């Protein structure tokens, strides 16, 4: 027997369906906010300055954001699982100082010293992960402690002195442009970004990060080894900070204990501006890339306009507040 849907019920179903489609389009639009914001900034700075859209300047922007971008890849995973890492800037400094001390003071071959820098970064991340998973410290406190310890150790390596005089081939990794536009460090960042995007979107391990960020307890009951994954995420974030230290050394042709000072805030800002939620469970590598580019474009454009670095900090802080406010309101609406 055929049943007919009452008109009132049909109208309700139709409105619900339209509402669902409306929300879907709204979510899609919000997801593109980082890209749209970046495009607006590029157009604005292009109109305000004569040099911003020049090929040379755009290449400089990309070169300058490789360090921040590499660290932001690890921070994305940390924030997706609902964590935070305030130590990445200090870990960067410690890693680059250990690399310089091994190569220039102890005579260790440069490639081995570079690998040691990655190992130091991974160990620092592992230490933060153990404080969180074993000592049950909040991520904020655990990584704050690691930040202080790593910065102190970075200064102790050479008693606060910088290390200079690396091999020419090492500095050339970020200076020499292959094919006329791409350095080795930029190519490395592009490859890492692609690998991270594929892993987080298509691999089971990447999807597990979102499950942990949504609810660690539910993820545990579903069979995901939450503590082990957390340790792996913080270790990887630390290792990428160590790699960023190596890249920074190629750019500066030196290792400085003050390197990476304040970079933890820019790294977190890039991920948040890219649409990640500090509550966990939300965030993409694509969004983080847009956030990194946004910060790079902001700094470059404001420098070209002669804006004070102090004002730049205010502008970036305001952008962070706006990004977090959008995320909070979006979650309340749901």
Description of the structure:
The protein has 334 residues and is mostly helical. The chain has a domain of 204 residues. Helices cover 76% and strands 1% of the residues. It contains 15 helices and two strands. A two-stranded antiparallel sheet has the order 1-2. The chain is globular and about 55 Å long.
- Average pLDDT: 87
Order of helices and strands: HHHHHHHEHHHHHEHHH
Content of β-strand: under 5%
Low-confidence stretches: 1-23
How many strands appear in the DSSP assignment? 2
Query: Whole-Å distance between the termini?
Result: 39 Å
Q: Percentage of helical residues?
A: over 70%
How does the overall form come out from the CA principal axes? globular
Rg calc: 22 Å
| Biggest sheet overview | 2 strands, antiparallel
Structural class: mainly alpha
The total count of helices amounts to: 15
Strand order of the biggest β-sheet: 1-2
Helix and strand arrangement:
Layout: H1 7-31, H2 33-48, H3 55-64, H4 66-80, H5 88-105, H6 110-133, H7 139-157, E1 163-164, H8 168-175, H9 184-202, H10 204-214, H11 216-221, H12 226-252, E2 254-255, H13 263-273, H14 285-304, H15 309-333
Antiparallel strand pairs: 1-2
Helix pairs in contact: 2-14, 4-9, 4-12, 4-13, 4-14, 5-6, 5-7, 5-12, 6-7, 6-12, 8-12, 9-10, 13-14
How would you concisely characterize the structure shown here?
This protein is mainly alpha-helical and 334 residues long. The chain has helices at residues 7-31, 33-48, 55-64, 66-80, 88-105, 110-133, 139-157, 168-175, 184-202, 204-214, 216-221, 226-252, 263-273, 285-304, 309-333; strands at residues 163-164, 254-255. Helix content is 76%, strand content 1%.
């Amino acid at each position: 027997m055929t049943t007919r849907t009452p008109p009132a019920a049909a109208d309700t179903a139709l409105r619900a369906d339209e509402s669902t489609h409306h929300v879907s389009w709204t979510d899609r639009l919000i997801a593109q906010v980082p890209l749209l914001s970046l495009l607006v900034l590029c157009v604005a700075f292009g109109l305000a300055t004569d040099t911003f859209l020049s090929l040379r300047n755009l290449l400089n922007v990309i070169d300058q954001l490789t360090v921040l971008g590499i660290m932001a890849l690890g921070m994305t995973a940390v924030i997706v699982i609902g964590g935070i890492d305030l130590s990445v800037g200090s870990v960067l400094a410690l890693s680059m100082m250990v690399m310089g001390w091994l190569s220039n003071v102890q005579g260790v071959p440069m490639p081995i010293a570079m690998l040691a820098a990655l190992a130091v970064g991974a160990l620092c991340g592992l230490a933060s992960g153990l404080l969180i998973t074993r000592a049950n410290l909040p991520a904020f406190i655990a990584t704050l402690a690691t930040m202080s310890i790593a910065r102190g150790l970075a200064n102790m390596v050479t008693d606060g002195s910088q290390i200079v005089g690396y091999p020419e081939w090492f500095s050339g990794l970020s200076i020499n442009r292959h094919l006329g536009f791409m350095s080795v460090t930029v190519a490395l960042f592009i490859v890492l970004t692609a690998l991270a995007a594929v892993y987080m979107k298509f691999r089971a391990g990447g999807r597990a990060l979102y499950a942990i960020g949504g609810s660690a307890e539910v993820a545990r009951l579903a069979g995901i080894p939450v503590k082990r994954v957390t340790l792996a995420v913080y270790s990887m974030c630390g290792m990428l900070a160590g790699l960023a230290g190596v890249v920074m050394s190629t750019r500066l042709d030196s290792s400085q204990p003050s390197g990476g000072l304040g970079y933890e805030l820019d790294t977190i800002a890039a991920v948040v501006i890219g649409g990640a939620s500090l509550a966990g469970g939300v965030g993409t590598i694509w969004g983080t890339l847009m956030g990194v580019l946004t910060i790079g474009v902001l700094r470059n454009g404001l420098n070209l306009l002669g804006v004070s670095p102090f004002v730049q900090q205010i502008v970036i802080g305001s952008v962070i507040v706006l990004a977090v406010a959008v995320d909070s309101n979006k979650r309340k609406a749901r």
